[in-house]
Design goal:
mainly alpha, two-stranded antiparallel ribbon, globular
Length: 194
C-alpha cells in the first residue's frame, strides 16, 4: 500500500472516530433549550481538533459529514418548519452550514505564532460562526416562537434570536474554548498538523 493511500485511510478512520465521538458527546446535554439548541459536553471539539490536525480541507469534509448525521437525527425540527422554503433554510442554517463551519478552525489558527492562543481564537471563531448560523435561522425562520415567551413578545425578532441562541451558544462556546485550551496544554502533540 502506498504512503498516500495509507495516509488517507488513516485520516478517514480518524475522521470517522471524531464524528462518532462528536455525535455521542452531542447526546450528553448539560442544558437544553425548549425549541432546539443545547449546551453539550464538548461535542464540537472533536471536529475542531480534526481541522487543527489535518487542515481546513479535511476539517470541512469531516464536519460536513457530521452535519448530515446531525440532520438525520434532527429531522423532526426540519419537519416543524412551516413550508418547503423554511425547511430548506432549516437544513442549511441549522445543520449543514452550522456544523460544517467547525471545519474552518485551522484557518483561524494560521496567523498566530503562539499555538495555544491560535487554538483558543480558532475554537472561538468557529463557534461564533456556528452561532451566527443559528442566529440567522432564528431570525429568518423561527421568529414566531418568540411569542411563546412573555419576555420576548415585544422584542424585535432579531433580538429574540440573539438572546435565545446566545443563551446556549455562549456557554457552549466557553466550554469548548476552555476544553480546547486544556486539551492542548495536556496533549500538545495532538494539535500538531499531521
Amino acid at each position: 500500500m502506498s504512503t498516500v493511500c495509507y495516509s488517507k485511510t488513516r485520516i478517514l478512520t480518524e475522521g470517522a472516530m471524531m464524528i462518532a465521538l462528536s455525535t455521542v458527546l452531542s447526546m450528553v446535554k448539560v442544558f437544553e433549550m425548549p425549541y432546539g439548541g443545547s449546551v453539550t459536553l464538548l461535542s464540537m471539539l472533536p471536529l475542531i481538533l480534526m481541522s487543527l490536525r489535518h487542515g481546513t480541507k479535511w476539517g470541512l469534509f469531516i464536519a460536513f459529514i457530521h452535519s448530515l448525521l446531525q440532520l438525520l437525527m434532527g429531522l423532526s425540527s426540519v419537519a416543524a418548519a412551516g413550508n418547503l422554503m423554511a425547511q430548506v433554510g432549516c437544513v442549511l442554517l441549522d445543520y449543514v452550514l452550522a456544523f460544517t463551519v467547525l471545519g474552518l478552525a485551522a484557518t483561524f489558527v494560521k496567523p498566530f505564532a503562539n499555538k495555544l492562543l491560535g487554538v483558543a481564537v480558532g475554537t472561538f471563531g468557529v463557534c461564533f460562526l456556528r452561532f451566527f448560523c443559528s442566529f440567522f435561522s432564528g431570525w429568518l425562520l423561527w421568529g414566531s416562537y418568540k411569542d411563546s415567551y412573555d419576555w420576548a413578545k415585544d422584542l424585535p425578532v432579531w433580538l429574540y434570536s440573539l438572546i435565545y441562541n446566545g443563551g446556549y451558544m455562549l456557554p457552549e462556546t466557553i466550554i469548548t474554548v476552555v476544553g480546547a485550551v486544556l486539551l492542548m496544554k495536556a496533549m500538545p502533540k495532538q494539535f500538531e498538523q499531521q
